[in-house]
Amino acid sequence: MATSVPKILIIRFSSIGDIVLTTPVIRCLRQQLGAEVHFLTKTSFAGVLKANPYLSKIWTIDKKVSEILPDLRAEQFSSIIDLHSNLRSRRLRLGLLGIRAYTFNKLNWQKWLLTRWKVNRMPDLHIVDRYLAAAAPLGIKNDKKGLDHFIPEEDKVTPNVYGITTSFVALVIGAAHATKRLPMEKLRELCQSLNIPVVLLGGPGDKETGLQIADKLEHVYNLCGELRLHQSADMLRQAEVVISHDTGLMHMAAALHRPIISIWGNTVPDFGMYPYLPGQPTLNISFEVPALSCRPCSKIGYNSCPKGHFKCMELQQIQAIAQHAVEKMTSLR
User: Fold this and answer.
1) Residue 68 Ramachandran class (φ > 0 left, ψ -120 to 50 alpha, else beta)
2) What is the rounded CA–CA span in Å between residue 188 and residue 185?
3) How confident is the model over 269-311, as pLDDT tens digits?
4) Does the pLDDT value for residue 2 go beyond 60?
5) Which fold would CATH assign to domain 7-138?
6) Do residues 251 and 146 lie in contact, with contact meaning Cβ atoms separated by under 8 Å?
7) Is the peptide bond prior to 15 cis by the omega test (within 30 degrees of 0)?
8) Residue of 13, 200, 228, 248 with fewest CB within 10 Å of its CB?
9) What is the pLDDT of residues 139-150, one digit of tens each?
10) What fold characterizes domain 153-332?
11) How open is the CA angle 278-191-207, to the nearest 5 degrees?
12) Which of 83, 72, 92 is nearest to 20 (CA)?
């Protein structure tokens, strides 16, 4: 008697980096179980996964799960894997009663202890491994292949179109919250310390900052706001080294197996969201300001430093970051 193919719905509403971090679960479900995998996210983030060959369908909502609940009921999913685990995803699971659902541990109490009292009870476990643990009862195992990111053919970029004719460093200047970002003056100092081509990457909101950083620096190319998301990913793919804050493009760089220099401000790698590079730990080096009693101040971030001094970024070792980037590029040649 033929065994029916599992039809599984994964829920992760946002954001870019968090969605990229779900890709090992998608791949393992498809490759190891032969499952038909569907993914539910917000409309604004659906493009992150549009070229993923392991997905059968991407579902989207603008605000409320009620927008698509009748259509999801009609799909008759065999299982739900809730990798967001918030009020909205719980409402969806309630609306799909009768379907076995699996969730992951968000470790909210541990994060609260770390941010509020600086007591570290976080497990030495990446969030990807916690995502995979949620799906493990279905019979999948970590294949240790890391993250996936697939770039549509129409988003492939030729760097020399922008005047970039040699090897370059990609510098991701943006992040959703200001306390995750180096100040503009520090980013400019970093670029001035690099005697190699630097490509600035970020969204439309980073364009003006990029212009200020690149001003009168002929080796710096400001592509912030000039590229679509997947085009930025393709520039990451072609970079010799990626320097990035704790943001979505950092995780895309990890999916593309690029050498990464990650810079950490108010957040910390101990939250379990550092670049996920199983079997390739030396591809990432993290720069943090140690022994700050106020850090981490948030698991997400703020518009400005709550203490007013912003030491977690103002005291970053800019020269050491630049030196490491140059040494890494030299070693790759």
Assistant:
1) alpha
2) 5
3) 999 999 999 999 899 999 999 999 999 999 999 999 999 999 9
4) no
5) Rossmann fold (3.40.50)
6) no
7) yes
8) 228
9) 999 999 999 999
10) Rossmann fold (3.40.50)
11) 90
12) 83
